[in-house]
Amino acid sequence: MDKFRMMFQFLQSNQESFMNGICGIMALASAQMYSAFEFSCPCMPEYNYTYGIGLLIIPPIWFFMLGFVLNNNVSVLAEEWKRPTGRRRKDPSVLRYMFCSITQRSLIAPAVWVSVTLMDGKSFLCAFSVNLDIERFGNYSLVNGMSETEMIKLLAKIPCKDLFEHQELRVAASRYIKCISQACGWMFLLMMTFTAFLIRAIRPCFTQAAFLKTKYWSHYIDIERKMFDETCKEHAKSFAKVCIHQYFENISGENIHHHHSSKDDSYDEDEDKKINDEDKLLGIRAQDDMNTILRNWHACKPALALKKDQINGEKNGGLNGEANGAVNGFVKGHTHGVEKKEWAVYYSKV
């Protein structure tokens, strides 16, 4: 059980690598599914094209949607897009970056399926066998006297070796269409590789600052959500411990105290645990207060402008404040010939 817990924590801390691994597994699964899939063309003019093109398009769409379902960042993106603005504005560039990142990972498995399907050529043969020009393959005398409808029915049977009688014509037509299909597959791979190269190599060269900003704040949104969930879990665990402990204290009355007085060591350990749980409550000890905090977190998240605690000015009183102010040229908020320093605070639009 500890090994599974360690593995789960490792996957959580390396989510990007984990998602890349998931995309790779999906890509291998798509290729394996196609190789294990028994392609059976209907060999009918009304259904050949629909079946062949459907096999080329519908499974990639399913893999694309599955990639979105398995990606945890989809919920983060939707939450950030739909949340009220409040005191923290939303940056469209961060949302676009997150959406593009999810889309790029989700496109890996569909791209593998399309490339494998085109390299195999069976669906391409099934879809376009009725469009062949029979004169290119010789033995035109086989179709002499046939009507156009009969010829289309004959060409539709080319993908099915059991239904087509003229094997030489079928082999020649199959090789011709499979060559075209493989050429389309290599062109597809070249186009996808070139597009990926442009996205990964050229985009940071033109918008490096904006790219770093959007990448940083997209990571921040994901980490903030995880930290908030972990804090809520810790608070809920501590709240339950304290609530149950107080419940048993109220029920047992004085008996539980007499029992604890006979075992001082165990009593001290329990008290230490209770104090730790009290600290984890962070002063929130009522159901309504917690519900209010959760509503406020969704409706109005805090602004991303952290302030440093004024230890000398607030905690030590006005005496230290005036002394430090006199040294620095500040007395009760006024300066004496000392140039005031300006501080820039970055307010994010996330």
From TrEMBL:
Superkingdom of the organism of origin: Eukaryota
UniProt GO cellular component terms = plasma membrane
Instruction: Identify the stretch annotated as signal peptide in this record.
Output: none
Keyword tags: Ion channel, Ion transport, Membrane, Transmembrane, Transmembrane helix, Transport
What GO molecular function annotations does the UniProt record carry, in alphabetical order?
Answer: monoatomic cation channel activity
One GO biological process term: ATP export
Looking at the UniProt entry, the stretches that span the membrane are 21-37, 49-70, 183-202
Q: Which cellular compartments is it found in? A: Membrane
Q: How does it sit in the membrane?
A: Multi-pass membrane protein
Instruction: Report the InterPro entries cross-referenced here.
Output: CALHM
Family affiliation: Belongs to the CALHM family.
Q: What is this protein called?
A: Calcium homeostasis modulator protein 1
